[in-house]
Fold this sequence. Notes:
By secondary structure, the chain is an all-alpha fold. It folds into two domains: 1-138, Serine Threonine Protein Phosphatase 5, Tetratricopeptide repeat (Alpha Horseshoe), CATH 1.25.40; 250-444, no CATH class. It contains 23 helices and two strands.
Amino acid sequence: MRTERFGTRLSTSSEAALAQFEVAALRILSHRPQAEAALVEALAADPQLTGAWALRGLCHVLLGRSAGTEQARAYLVTAKAVMDGASASDDERALVRALEVGVHGGLRRAAEILENKVHGRPQLLLFAKLAHALRFMAGDRDRLTVGVETVLNSTHAGADGMGFMLGCLAFASEERGDFRRAEQLGLLALAQEPEDAWAMHAVSHVHEMTGRTRDGLDFIEKSRPIWSQCNNFSLHMSWHKALFQAEERRFDDALQVFDDEIWPHASEDFRDISNAVSLLRRLELVGVQVAGRWQSVAQAAAAHVQDKTYTFASLHNLVALLSAGRLNEAADLVATMERPGAPGNDQEHVMRRVGRPIARLLLDEARGRAGRIDLQPLLSALRDLGGSAAQRDLFVRILIHHASRRADQHALAELLAFRRQLKKDDLFVEVVAGSHPHPVRYTA
């Protein structure tokens, strides 16, 4: 047995396999590209490395797509076959168990399996990070840092990789509304681990939710040399930049960032589509015309009409299709969302409580029907959608816009009160309240 840098015990005698697994782990922790490529190299050095097969599978589960899930299933089959024929470590067996649950949609249970290992051995930083990512996707804010806090409470503060754990804790603090602590932790994380893009991300979220747009722009530009080297997480950081620009009424600049950095080319990744959808619809909701930009995004979304793997992704795809006027495909997507999911899949619960009600409302509105929604249960369940509070704010804005158009003052007041618990009032609220004229702009 060998132990890689971030704590995982691996059943390999190959130095090359161990080294490449460590590269993959670091790339996952720092959101750098080519993590799977490093795992491919590890398996080239040792095809029997169970942990590498399982980690490849978990990376595909986190893609939130049916195609990714099918690929993860294939890796699971290989991982189990290799594990049965070799002396796999307990850590590798835990990765395989988490993958087996994850491919069936049990994101929270998969996270729990990894966290249980961390409780027994707090050196497992990679496991804590993976559990954090799974719970983030599952919208499990209350247990977002179960594994991370175990590591931090049991390991020397200056130990290798602790900055990555502090970055996770910073983000969780921001999501719980403790903005001051989140910013302090994020900056502390960066002092220890300057390449921790997740910590940068947490600080940017603090700037967004507290309305500190100038601080946000300055911070993002100063940290660009780091986050621009990330995987497609760099596009999400550009999304934050564009949000700050839009808040400062720099709409042409925000759309230029969209063209150059957020959607420079079509993407199948739900995170990229979500960034694009969220920025364009936010701009439209304050009166900005976005020209023909919806067409490319909607074309990417249309490829996933039959995919209900991840509710968060499905709703963003739906917004894209409706915004581009592709009503038939939007109706097909809603029909897909209406189909019952398999037992044990976390997303069936989310789809029932959040996905379907919002989808029905959006489709009814597009068809000119006066749809209504029961706000209290929806708002109480909204965080289950996954993603961040800033990302879910898109749907709060859409609901507020819907209530405003219907002149439903009771629903409008309820929604605004809910939103004010999450973030400071902004340009969008000014537009809804009528205290700021719609800044309609055309940008080619």
